[in-house]
Amino acid sequence: MSQPGLIEGRVVAAHGRQYFVQLADGSLLPCFTRGKKSDVACGDRVDIKQTAPDQGVIEAIQPRSSLLYRSNEVKQKLIAANVDQLVIVVATEPGFSDELVTRALIAAESEEIEVLIVLNKCDLADKLPIARERLKMFAALDYRVLELSALEHAEDLRPALHGKTSVLVGQSGMGKSTLVNALFPEARAATREISAALDSGKHTTTHATLYNLDADSQLIDSPGLQEFGLGHLNTQEIEHAFREFRPYLGQCRFRDCRHNREPDCALSAAVNAGKIEEKRFATYHRIMGTLRPG
């Protein structure tokens, strides 16, 4: 419930400290935050004060059900709030990063957000077998994988989006924009309108943009990622985010086991027994190496 004099809305686009808030009647209002620092994310439900017919101020962020973000030792980057599902878009071409996919999965697991991996550009038949093979280790962990071609069969994704707020993430070139434009033909026009209202056309890239697919389904498109920092998570949270590690956590001889060369390490034993994929274990160590000093 908003305070007296304040209006409820949902942030549908962000650029710096400028936001586009959708009100209950469907209208869009450009808004700012107070102060220099802002922790508002696309998808946030906010309380605003309308200060002019075409402008408002965000006074409060309502409690979130989830927050997806990435961070390193210097700063954090909010991606989206109040999302139910993370849709990781990869493609048969150009090649995608297994580690980036894993990092996105860890971020989703830490917030208990559902995950769907979309393999795009499946019309490139000669590239398809290699991409499928690379995704097998994720499918083996019960992550859903949907194959499609955004140019021809984007509608195959729509049933998986129904009734949820989903956010698309992926490296540049994976075809996220093509998917959005196919599912939401008005997307280009909406993006132009938002860009013009937020920053007078000086910048066209927003941090993320939310589109209403229908009354019950929203899709947030985020800019292409080249990295996905996990500096906001601790060792235990990252370990737990690897689904296949969970049966073995707490079973090592040493409580502070780093699962490297320590004797009687339950995770290392599981790797040697073929119960944990060696490639995933190596990715885990690379990720932990970026978080630990030295």
Number of helices: 9
Anisotropy-based shape: globular
Instruction: Find the count of extended strands (DSSP E, 2+ residues).
Output: 13
Class by alpha and beta content: alpha/beta
- Can you give the helix content as a percent range? 25-40%
Low-confidence sequence ranges: 200-205
If strands are numbered along the chain, what order do they take across the biggest sheet? 10-9-8-11-13-12
What is the first-to-last residue Cα distance? 48 Å
Q: Characterize the biggest β-sheet.
A: 6 strands, mixed
Strand percentage, roughly?
A: 25-35%
Element-level helix/strand string: EEEEEEEEHEHEHHEHHEEHHH
Radius of gyration: 21 Å
Mean pLDDT: 90
Oligomer: single chain
